[in-house]
Structures are given as C-alpha cells and as structure tokens.
Write a structure and sequence with these properties.
Oligomer: single chain
Structural class: alpha+beta
CATH superfamily of the largest domain: Jelly Rolls
Number of domains: 2
Order of helices and strands: EHEEEEEEEEHEHHHHHHHHHH
Helix content: 40-55%
Number of helices: 12
Distance between the termini: 39 Å
Largest sheet: 6 strands, mixed
Strand order of the largest sheet: 1-10-7-4-9-2
CATH topology of the largest domain: Jelly Rolls
Number of strands: 10
Radius of gyration: 21 Å
CATH architecture of the largest domain: Sandwich
C-alpha cells in the first residue's frame, strides 16, 4: 500500500495534535534511524536497491528523480526536499527524471531499524511506502531537511551523529503526519482514532509494569470485557494481553541494551515478580535469552 498526502487535505502546514498513545510509543519505542549514504548524480543514472530487512528512506537534497517499486502502482516523481519512506524495506529503483537529466541530483539515504526481536507496533502499521512532499510540508519539516543538506555539505564536527539525530526527528514528523492526514489506517493507526482503545494504549505504553488484566483495561476503556477484547483485537490484530506482553518485551530489550539495569531489576520494573518467569517469557517472545543481549 502506498500513501501520499492528498492536496485537498492540505499538508503538515495545518498541524493537529498527535494522539498521546502514539507520542508515548515514539518516546519509548526501540527504533534507530541511521543515515548510511549520500549520493550525488548527474546525467543518466539509476540505483537499484534490493529488499532489506530494515526500513529505508531517501531524502532528495537537490534536483529531481523517479522512484519505482512493486509496492507502487506507478513511478513517483520526487523533487528537492521530498522524503520517501519504505518502512518494510521493499526493493525499488531510483533513477534520473528524464526532463532533468542535466541537473545534478543529491540523495540522503538511510535505514530504519525497528526492534528486530519483537513485533514493533509501527513496523506492522505503516504502509509499504509513504511520501512527504516539501511543497505541502510546514516550515519545521522544510527547515529540518535543509539542515540535513547543510550538514552533508559541511565538514562540521560530529557530522554523522547530527545527521542521524536529524533523520530520527524527520521520521517522527513523517509518522505523525501519516497518523493525522490519512484515513486508510490499519493496526496501531486504526486504534488511535478510537478514543477508548487509544486511552488504553497510552496507559500501557506509559506504564508497562502496571499489573494489567483484561478487566483493568476494559474498565479504563469504559467497556465490558468481551466488547473491549473484540474491539481491541479487531483494530490491533492481536488480543490485548498479547500486545501488553510484546510491548513489555520491547521495552525490556531497550533497557537490556542500555546495560544500566540487571535482568532482575528490569523484570521487577515491568511487573514480573519472578526473574525466572520473565527470562522464559522474554526468550519465548524474542527468541533470545536476556543475558545474550547484555553480552
């Protein structure tokens, strides 16, 4: 599925509030955004990208180009300042726009690394391709893209770190833009527009160690247990307690990689009274033993 803003809906220039459940997820989720290449082309050119295990993005720094992919019904024409994101790493080709062959084109290319051991909510909810057009974006988005181009063209100290942090912010803007402006949602984004389910998701994201039960979540949503379970599974494509478990494991993986806390402390923080039970659950969900991440 390919998603691009409709001009009739306007661009990011008319900001709306970000759903709290999405904000809390983005604030805590294990997601790394890395700039991995800066490409410069002139004349006739093309660049084939195979399928990747991670997500991909390309920011057009200057000039224009085309992107083709089996995820798209037709080639897209990208201009300077446009951002294209392929969250699932679909194979694609970037090439010269025939009407602009004499104009140099530069690209800033990067990777999106979701938590690779758990079912990250964003990785399943985002479409195969989404585009943010500079012409429809607000000043914040355009300023960020301009800063990235300036950093690429400079010899500033800490250049790679700056690019990665700017790219992380740019991806966050793209996700929030998608959540606000598109109606063909699935998974997490479908749940965000349901006020009752969104309230539960926010609470789970912000308090993963709370002793969650089906009854406590249903009460928070002001729904019966059966109605809540059915509605949650319909939107999120999984039962509520499974989502809680996967979110806890995702948070645990981030905490383990920070290497600041012991396995026992992390287990207790996430609501598990038994470290042994937590170790078994972590391995069942992620496929790894907690200790192997600490090494």
């Amino acid at each position: 599925m390919y998603i691009e803003p409709s001009p009739a809906l306007g661009g990011i220039a008319h900001p709306t509030s970000v759903p709290p459940a999405l904000e809390s997820l983005l604030n805590q989720s294990m997601l790394r955004v890395d700039v991995v290449a800066e490409q410069h082309y002139c004349g006739e050119w093309f660049m084939d990208e195979p399928r990747y295990e991670c997500g991909l993005f390309h920011l057009v720094g200057a000039g224009e180009c085309l992107i083709e992919s089996s995820a798209l019904t037709e080639a897209l024409h990208l201009k300077a300042g446009d951002l294209v994101v392929l969250p699932h790493g679909d194979p694609h080709r970037l090439s010269a726009h025939h009407e602009q062959e004499g104009i140099p084109t530069s690209l800033i290319c990067g990777e999106l690394h979701f938590s690779n051991r758990t079912q990250h909510p964003l990785s399943h909810a985002l479409p195969t391709c989404l585009v943010v057009r500079a012409a429809e974006a607000d000043k914040v988005f355009r300023h960020l893209t301009s800063m990235m181009v300036d950093v690429v063209n400079s010899g500033v100290a800490g250049r790679q770190v700056l690019l990665n942090k700017l790219a992380d912010t740019l991806f966050t803007l793209a996700v929030c833009d998608y959540a606000n402006r598109n109606t063909d949602h699935r998974g997490l984004f479908a749940a965000l527009v349901d006020g009752r389910i969104c309230k539960v998701l926010q609470a789970v994201h912000e308090n993963p160690g709370r002793p969650w039960t089906m009854q406590s979540m249903a009460s928070l949503a002001c729904m019966s247990r059966s109605a809540f379970a059915e509605r949650f599974a319909q939107l999120m494509k999984m039962p509520p307690m499974q989502y809680v478990t996967q979110w806890r494991v995702s948070i645990a993986e981030r905490l383990l990689r920070d290497r600041q806390l012991s396995v026992g402390t992390i287990a207790e923080r996430l609501g598990y009274s038994s470290e042994a039970a937590f170790r078994r659950l972590f391995k069942r969900v992620s496929g790894l033993c907690p200790g192997s991440i600490l090494k």
